[in-house]
Every structure is written in C-alpha cells, then in structure tokens.
Write a structure and sequence with these properties.
The chain contains seven helices and six strands. The protein has helices at about 10-30, 35-45, 55-70, 70-90, 105, 125-135, 190-200; strands at about 100, 115-120, 140, 150-155, 160-165, 185. The mean pLDDT is about 85. It comes from Sulfuritalea hydrogenivorans sk43H.
C-alpha cells in the first residue's frame, strides 16, 4: 500500500524536525555534508525517502541556533582558531591566490570542522612542491568535485586543513557550493584579518 501523503501542516513540522536533527548531527557528530546529514536525520525520524527534506539554508539556520544554545563559547573559540590557522596557511601559499571558505568563514564551524581553503594554480603539483619545500607533509584526497584539479589534506596547529586546487580561470567564476544550495562564499587573506579584528573578545 502506498504511503499516505502528509498534510501540509504535518509536512512542515516534519521538515523542521529533520532540519533540527540534521543540525544536531552536524554540531555533535561532525558531519559536514548537508545532504548526508538531512538523509540520516530523515531516516532517524522515520520519514520516507526524500520526504519533507529541508534546504541547506534551513539546516544552517538550525545549526546556528543549536551552536548558540549549546556550544557558544566553544564554537566561538573554534571559529577564531580555524580562522587564525587558515590565515597562516594562506600567507604561506600566497602565490596561489588563496581564499578561505566553509564553516570557518561563515561562522558555523564546530568542534570537528576543518579549515577549508581554495587555491588557484596551473598545476596541483606546483602546490605540492611548495608544501614540500616548507617541510609540510600532506595527503592527497579522493577528488570527486567537479572543476577541482586536486584536494589535499594537512594538519596545521593541530587543526585539519582541506585544500581544494582549481585552475586559474576558475578564480573569476562564481564559486559553487559542493553541498548544493546557494553559491559558496570566500574571502582573501585581507578579509580574514578583518574578521579576526572585528570578532568579539
């Protein structure tokens, strides 16, 4: 027998419940993929496949609310540390036009979040050579992102740093969010310095 379609009010309630559960998974378990978080949350609530799924923006709103209620001091400190770490890496790799993006930029980074940096280089090997010349070890990640030449992972100040390397022409294009939803924000080192300067003490 086919599952009965939910009434609008019930569907709206389920949608909010899934958004809240997905936000909790991202805050407490370190999930970074919005799609994976919302699907896991939906299953935990007994929702049918694809039923009443919230948008990434709705989950982000719930995530900010959750962090404000339960992780405010810890989360603010984490964001500050990730931004500081990101700035140091960006200054080291300045020749590759680095941008900070992700949770460290938008302020949603939690206890398991990594620094996310985008670089632009003629070849990903140029970035690898630069890292090795500074004695920095890294891992090459499985790359499934369209338009990305390579993805690297390294540790800096005991924080994970994820580096996505794009061809130079991509710097002039609107950045895409790998998790869907609205376009991905990014800032240069000057913007990170301003964020650190204006952060609450």
């Amino acid at each position: 027998m086919p599952r009965r379609k939910l009434a609008p009010s019930a569907s709206s309630y389920l949608r909010r419940s899934i958004a809240s559960a997905a936000a909790r998974l991202m805050a407490e378990e370190g999930l970074t993929d919005y799609g994976a978080a919302k699907r896991k949350a939906a299953r935990s609530l007994g929702a049918a496949e694809g039923e009443a799924l919230p948008t990434n923006e709705e989950i982000e709103t719930e995530l900010r609310a959750w962090q404000s209620l339960y992780q405010e001091d810890e989360q603010l400190e984490r964001v500050h540390d990730l931004r500081t770490t990101g700035l140091e890496v960006m200054q080291l790799l300045a020749e590759f036009h680095p941008y900070l993006t992700g949770g460290a930029l938008d302020g949603t980074a939690g206890r398991y979040s990594a620094v996310e940096i985008e670089l632009f280089a003629d070849s990903s090997k140029d970035v690898e050579i630069a890292l090795l010349s500074h004695g920095i070890s890294y891992d090459i990640m499985d790359n499934r992102r369209a338009g990305v030449d390579a993805q690297l992972r390294l540790d800096w100040n005991d924080f994970p740093v994820l580096i996505a390397i794009f061809p130079p022409v991509a710097e002039r294009q609107q950045p895409k969010n790998p998790h869907g939803g609205r376009g991905r924000n990014r800032v240069r080192a000057e913007g990170v310095i301003e964020l650190l300067r204006s952060a609450p003490k």
